[in-house]
Amino acid sequence: MIQLYGIPNCDTVKKARAWLDARGTDYAFHDYKKEGADPGKLAAWSDAAGWEALLNRRGTTFRALADADKAHIDRAKAIRLMEASPSLIKRPVVEHTGGVLVGFDTAEWERALV
Questions:
Q1: Which 8-state DSSP code applies to residue 103?
Q2: What values do phi and psi take at 44, rounded to 5?
């Protein structure tokens, strides 16, 4: 079973869910807003995909961080920030039998999930 992590009102998550639904792919959805972000998962995803790929630096949540929080980010700090504010996690994140996908790229998803 595929596990999809994200925020339900995120446009990218909506596209990803529609893509999975159109292919009849079963998945479970984990809503960060309701269920939070597990630091163990964040660490595992960071190991699999790299914390740089996982940390969403483009969103308003990152831009709203204090300068001290944005400075000198390393893996441990990134995980703490993402745990405290799941909106900082690039969306969606997908756990599947072959690994972890971060973000929604149809070509990458076709190779990994179909």
A1: S
A2: -65, -45
Q: Of 87, 45, 36, whose CA–CA distance to 63 is shortest?
A: 87
CATH topology for 2-113 is Glutaredoxin (3.40.30)
Q: Which helix (H) or strand (E) segment is 110 a member of?
A: helix 106-113
The pLDDT tens digits along the chain (114 residues) read: 899 999 999 999 999 999 999 999 999 999 998 999 999 999 999 999 999 999 999 999 999 999 999 999 999 999 999 999 999 999 999 999 999 999 999 999 999 997
What residues act catalytically? 10
CA distance to 68, 74, 84, 87, 110, per residue, from 107 (Å): 37, 30, 31, 25, 5
Give residue 30's identity as a one-letter amino acid code.
H
The secondary structure of 43-102 as a DSSP string is HHHHHHH-HHHHB--SSHHHHTS-HHHHSS--HHHHHHHHHH-GGGB-S-EEEETTEEEE
